[in-house]
């Protein structure tokens, strides 16, 4: 007997696969309104069992994902889960699809302008938003550390030069003694 947590989100609905190509496809889904969803998880499995991939994205409101590095002319099964604050939903219904053959590739001018772009995903994976945010945060932290170091270096340098000036400045004890007549000793 398995009891579901009452605050877990419901399973995604209307899971569809679009933009089929020889090595990629786009999966999209809907989430029932009013439910707190903070991400998704996708189970992608090749039907012959040779490959399985689990994709998990948190802190996103995306309702689509590009599946890349797929085998040409192969059958796949995907399932999508919603991720909520208290866990994951049950998996959606299984969706079967088959990638195209390289010779079946659609002409490049047939893509719709509203579709998610696939450029560059065949060979190199594009950076995700979270990765870019992490990179920018690290660069900003390094810039702050360098600025702090330069500020501390200037303070140390200023203190060091002030200490050297005080050491070379003659004190009143070591100055030339005055004569009682009111003048300094002079040599002729």
How much of the polypeptide forms β-strand, as a percent range?
25-35%
Instruction: List unreliable stretches of 5+ residues.
Output: 108-124
How many E-type strands? Answer: 8
Helix content: 10-25%
Q: What would you call the shape? A: elongated
The H-level CATH homologous superfamily of the domain at 13-98, spelled out, is: Immunoglobulins
- Helix and strand composition category: alpha+beta
Distance between the termini: 116 Å
CATH uppermost class of the domain at 13-98: Mainly Beta
The biggest sheet, with number of strands, parallel, antiparallel or mixed sense and barrel status, is: 5 strands, antiparallel
By CATH, the topology of the domain at 13-98 is Immunoglobulin-like
Give the mean pLDDT.
78
SSE sequence, one letter per element: EEEEEEEEH
CATH architecture title of the domain at 13-98: Sandwich
Rg from C-alpha positions? 35 Å
The number of helical runs is: 1
Biased composition (Basic and acidic residues): 159-177
Domain Fibronectin type-III: 9-102
Membrane topology: Single-pass membrane protein
InterPro entries: FN3_dom, FN3_sf, FNDC_type_III_4/5, Ig-like_fold
Topology:
Elements: E1 13-18, E2 25-30, E3 39-46, E4 52-58, E5 64-67, E6 75-84, E7 87-88, E8 95-98, H1 129-168
Antiparallel strand pairs: 1-2, 2-5, 3-4, 3-6, 6-7, 6-8
